[in-house]
Amino acid sequence: MPPLRLGSLTIDFPVIQAALSGYSDAPMRKIARQFGAEFTLCEVMLDKFVVEVSRRKSKIYFADFDEHPVGAQLMGSEPEQFVRAAQRLVNEGFDLIDLNFACPVKKVLGRGRGGYLMSDPKTALKIVEAVRGNIPDRIPLTVKLRKGFDDSAESRNKFFEILDGCVVRGVCGFTVHGRTVKQRYEGESDWQFIREVKEHLPSNPSPLERGISLIGSGDLFTADICVKRLRESGIDALALARGVIGNPWLFRDVKQLLTPAACGELPFTSGQTPPLTEQREVIAEHFRLSVELYGEKRAATTMRAFGVKYALLHPQREEVRQMFARTKTAADWEYILEKFYS
């Protein structure tokens, strides 16, 4: 596969860590990189929060270790606030700004944010124009979209109105999730639509020499499916989201299938779970990074959401899942690893 190009950035392995609210913090991003992800996005940030919060309290978003290139995803409803937040994130060292016009959460939609903007091309394009015009040219600007607000013809037309308008305004890449906003995560992701978007993009006039890149998202849970979607759709890259929560091995699996000669052989067959000893090492390292960032008390509870996902790879998945769900202290984590992962 050719590298993914997003403006000034070149990413050799075209499978990235998606922005995941409540998950893709610095520890998760670092684990993803250890398994082959060369580009990661932090969890989505509300523009108002970015503008108002202190640097000390926002360390959940700003990594203390070197993880470049890394992108920041913003969500909001007002162009001016988007600009102020984007400028701060650039100053904090992020290499790319991604605008979230896709979040389907009800309270987000009710405040005119996220996926609501799929129904309001005028405001969406005002935001894009404002941000692109007020951050340095060297910083790539990308946009996260869904298939539409709903499945109506009007919604489809609005999707392409936003898409084309973003291209004209200097957006260098898109991530498209193959469900509508109203679908949330129900039904299957429409990869035929994602292919249509890819076929549509080359006909658009582009002010960027490198052209417009398209990243696909939705229902990417196994390496075989990832490679199939990447090749059949003709897109430039994949964004792994729910599929890598508690399963960073998926990055390594996909890389193995795409570049077997470069990566060597996996210690396990693609589609099978890694050995318990390896799972233990990864979970322990993830917890250590979380303690380093948040402190022991907060890490013990923050990591619960990851623990119940890691448990899905364990032979005693239900028992282990319930144990992780009840963790309150570092001692609880040590006990689970000793009891179930020795």
Protein architecture, described:
By secondary structure, this protein is an alpha/beta fold. Helices cover 44% and strands 13% of the residues. The chain contains 15 helices and 11 strands. It has 2 domains: 260 residues, Aldolase class I (TIM Barrel, Alpha-Beta Barrel); 65 residues, Orthogonal Bundle (Non-ribosomal Peptide Synthetase Peptidyl Carrier Protein, Chain A), CATH 1.10.1200. Strands 3, 4, 5, 6, 7, 8, 9, 10 and 11 form a 9-stranded parallel β-sheet that branches. Strands 1-2 form a two-stranded antiparallel sheet.
Largest sheet: 9 strands, parallel
SS strand fraction: 5-15%
What structural class do the secondary elements suggest? alpha/beta
Helix content: 40-55%
* Low-pLDDT ranges: 203-209
Task: Report the top-level CATH class of the largest domain.
Answer: Alpha Beta
How far is the N terminus from the C terminus? Answer: 38 Å
Assign the CATH superfamily of the largest domain: Aldolase class I
Search tags:
9-stranded parallel sheet, TIM Barrel, Non-ribosomal Peptide Synthetase Peptidyl Carrier Protein, Chain A, two-stranded antiparallel ribbon, alpha/beta, globular, 15 helices, 342 residues, 13% strand
In short:
This protein is of the alpha/beta class. Helices cover 44% and strands 13% of the residues.
What order do the helices and strands come in, and which of them pair?
Elements: E1 4-6, E2 9-11, E3 15-17, H1 26-34, E4 40-41, E5 45-46, H2 47-52, E6 70-75, H3 79-91, E7 96-100, H4 106-110, H5 121-132, E8 141-146, H6 153-168, E9 173-177, H7 191-200, E10 213-217, H8 223-233, E11 237-240, H9 249-258, H10 260-263, H11 276-294, H12 296-302, H13 304-310, H14 317-325, H15 330-340
Parallel strand pairs: 3-11, 4-6, 5-6, 6-7, 7-8, 8-9, 9-10, 10-11
Antiparallel strand pairs: 1-2
Helix pairs in contact: 1-11, 3-5, 5-6, 8-9, 11-12, 11-15, 13-14
